[in-house]
Amino acid sequence: MTPEMQQQLRIRQLVENWAVYRDAGLWDRFRTVWHDDGVMMATWFQGPFEDFIRVTIEGWNKGVSILHFLGGSAIDVQGTRAIAQTKMTISQRGLVEGCLCDVVCTGRFYDFFEERQGR
């Protein structure tokens, strides 16, 4: 396996870990997918990853149910940096004016990576 393929595999594993750890409520493991100064940018949240985890836990504790499904990805590596583009579907169930509803969002995740001290 080439060094670039090894990097791509590590990145894909990290992308998958993000979805699995978040959806399973494995918060300590979820924290491992970011560097200390990592940020989260989503449609509903922009800010430091610790704040994202905090508000995600708050929603989790209120019964918010969200699942992330990942599809194919393209990962471009340039030195110690990379960008992963991953097809995704987010499925959410919740009450809207007293009616239980399912919402599905299909799109792409863009993840920006930097390797620091082998991590």
The average pLDDT value, as a whole number, equals: 96
Strand order of the largest sheet: 3-4-5
Number of domains: 1
Task: Give the fraction of residues assigned to helices.
Answer: 25-40%
Strand runs, count: 5
What composes the largest sheet? 3 strands, antiparallel
Structural class estimated from helices and strands: alpha+beta
Structural Rg: 15 Å
What is the percentage of strand-forming residues?
35-45%
* Terminal CA distance: 19 Å
> Could you state the order of secondary-structure elements as H and E?
HHEEHEEE
CATH topology: Nuclear Transport Factor 2, Chain: A
The CATH architecture is Roll
Shape descriptor: globular
- Poorly predicted runs: none
Total count of helical runs of at least 4 residues: 3
CATH top level class name? Alpha Beta
